[in-house]
């Protein structure tokens, strides 16, 4: 892969790894909660007022793999619409 290819950041031969860790949910939210009527009480708890979308994670990963994030290292980004800070008990 050419050096400009974002996937090269995750290559085992890369001098430093900027490959963001991702933890895909299994089962996914919509598989776990298939009835849209059940989404509202969950959505109401999210401070940003909506459920997350795959694009929310994809855009973050794309940014982390881009040169625009070249000074970011060793971070764990939580993409949750503010849910964890709203419920500190969720962090352990």
Automatic annotation (TrEMBL):
<feature type="compositionally biased region" description="Polar residues">
    <location>
        <begin position="10"/>
        <end position="20"/>
    </location>
</feature>
<dbReference type="Pfam" id="PF13561">
    <property type="entry name" value="adh_short_C2"/>
</dbReference>
<dbReference type="InterPro" id="IPR002347">
    <property type="entry name" value="SDR_fam"/>
</dbReference>
<comment type="similarity">
    <text>Belongs to the short-chain dehydrogenases/reductases (SDR) family.</text>
</comment>
<protein>
    <recommendedName>
        <fullName>SDR family oxidoreductase</fullName>
    </recommendedName>
</protein>
<dbReference type="InterPro" id="IPR003560">
    <property type="entry name" value="DHB_DH"/>
</dbReference>
<feature type="region of interest" description="Disordered">
    <location>
        <begin position="1"/>
        <end position="40"/>
    </location>
</feature>
<dbReference type="InterPro" id="IPR036291">
    <property type="entry name" value="NAD(P)-bd_dom_sf"/>
</dbReference>
<dbReference type="GO" id="GO:0019290">
    <property type="term" value="P:siderophore biosynthetic process"/>
</dbReference>
<keyword id="KW-0560">Oxidoreductase</keyword>
<dbReference type="GO" id="GO:0008667">
    <property type="term" value="F:2,3-dihydro-2,3-dihydroxybenzoate dehydrogenase activity"/>
</dbReference>
């Amino acid at each position: 892969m050419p050096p400009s290819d974002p996937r090269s950041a995750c290559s085992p031969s890369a001098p430093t790894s900027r490959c963001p860790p991702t933890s895909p949910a299994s089962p996914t939210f919509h598989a776990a909660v298939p009835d849209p009527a059940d989404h509202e009480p969950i959505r109401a708890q999210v401070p940003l007022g909506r459920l997350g979308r795959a694009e929310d994670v994809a855009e973050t990963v794309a940014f982390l793999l881009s040169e625009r994030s070249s000074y970011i290292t060793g971070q764990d980004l939580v993409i949750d619409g503010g849910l964890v800070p709203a419920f500190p008990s969720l962090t352990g």
